[in-house]
Structure formats: structure tokens, C-alpha cells
Amino acid sequence: MKIEYSPLDRDKQEIRLLELLPQSRDRKQKLFPTCRIFHACLPAGPRFTALSYVWGDVKNKQVILVDESPVLVTKNLYEAMMALRPIDEPLVMWIDALCINQADDDEKSWQVGLMQEIYRQAHQVLAWLGSADKHSDSVIDHLDCLGGKAELLTRELPSPQEYAWQNLPLVLGSLLRGGVPTAEMMKRLGSVRPLTREDYMPFFGFIDAYYEQNGQKMMRALKDFITRPWWGRVWVLQEIALPENARFVCGTKTISRDRCAAAIRTYRMWWMSLAEKSTAGNPFSLSQY
């Protein structure tokens, strides 16, 4: 159940890509993501989608079909490929676990050296956060709506997108390790790229209304969303900041990287406003969040 790889040409900067085939009408194959692997030269500029994901529990594996042969992959990758299967045309992808011969240390070494360029050249990068839970769809819908409003503030800013995400890996890694309280978590997340609070004030009412409708459940759901295992990966900056087109995928829902960042910044400013009210002796209580 191993992939039979043919050697890559290092001098040509060859990589492997895969075609994730459309959902099959065959009842048996509907249960398995199906793909075929081929070679491409990176300098030639092939059009492909790169997947950013966590491998997950290596002991928990599922079967996919690669070149018509069964291959075991981690459950998280299986679920990602199932969710991303196209309806009509094949989707050309780069997925490290399948496109790099994991049994060849020499190949792994020089292919890892190309990863920055692979993610930079990708037509789009999809960051797979995992399957949906009972609240993730509503969280993404909320962040998408809020971020869409807040993006209007940053559309004309000259700051490069890399700057907006330069602190994210360290911030989220510390959250995962330390059990940080919600208030501190929101404060740290908002440090990715600050704007003045006054710029964001028109959107505070939107957050207030959402909180009044959903209560503490909303904050817990947000925390669960932004502390999923993907956010703690050391390669987050390289994989999500470099490409022009990057999206988060959770179950069947997606949100763009830039829109998600705009929503997080808005929450930071909102939280700072609440903290100031509390410090000034306002009867408003931060503990309710």
C-alpha cells in the first residue's frame, strides 16, 4: 500500500503534483478520494493548489486511491481530500505527504528546500482547519461578514500581507501551550497589524449584537476555532502569508486569509474598548465574556 515513485530531476527543480479526481459515480469509489500523480517543473509555472494542513494522528489512517492503488494516509488528510473533491473537473494539487517520497531522505531534503517557492507559486493555498463542529459554520459566517466590513479599512493600506501575519505562529503557538484566558487571547491575536480603535468603532455594534444574540457560546466557539491544531504549526507563516490567494477551509465553509485577519483585528479593538470601560469604573463586566 505504498506509492511507487519515479525519481525527480533535481536540476530541473521537478516536483510532483496530483490530480484530485471528481467525485465518482461508482458507489465504491465514492468512499475514497482518488488521485493520480505526475511530474512538473516548478520554473515552468504549473497551475496548482497547495494544501496546508496538519498530518494528525499517524496511527489513525484511512484509505485513498493513488494511481488506482490503495494508500494509507492520516484521517485528517483523508477528510481534507474528501471535502475538497471537485464536482466536475480534476483539481491539481500539491500535498507534501503524497508529492514527496517520504521514504527518500535525500529527496525530502531538497524538496523541503523548495517549499517556500512552491507555496509562493501556488495559484491558491487552502489551509485545512479540520472537519466542521456544531459551531464552526456559524463562526466562519460571522467572521466572514465582520471581516468583509472591516476589509474596507485596509484595502488601500500599503503594508505587505506578510506583516499582518508575522506574529501569528508565535501567538497561536503560545495559546495552545498555555491555556490563555479569552480576554488575553483576543488581545494577542489582534497584534497582527493594528489600526486606530476609532477606525473600527463603526463595527463594534455588529459584534455587540452578535454577542447579545449568542452569549458566551459565541466567545467559546471563537476560541475553539482559532485554537484548532493547524494554528500551532511552525510553517504557518511560510504557507499562508506568501501566496497572494489563500483561504481557510473548515468542513464545507471557507474564508479568505485577509478577511479572517480583518475580523481578528476588529475583535482586538472591540476588546480593548471593553477593557478600558471596565478600568474606568464602568459597571460593564469583562467576566461575562
TrEMBL record:
**Signal peptide position in this chain?**
none
Q: Which InterPro entries match?
A: HET, HetReg/Transcr_Mod
Residues of the Heterokaryon incompatibility domain: 48-239
Record protein name field? Heterokaryon incompatibility domain-containing protein
UniProt-listed PANTHER family: ANKYRIN REPEAT DOMAIN-CONTAINING PROTEIN 39 HOMOLOG-RELATED, HETEROKARYON INCOMPATIBILITY DOMAIN-CONTAINING PROTEIN
Record's Pfam families? HET (PF06985)
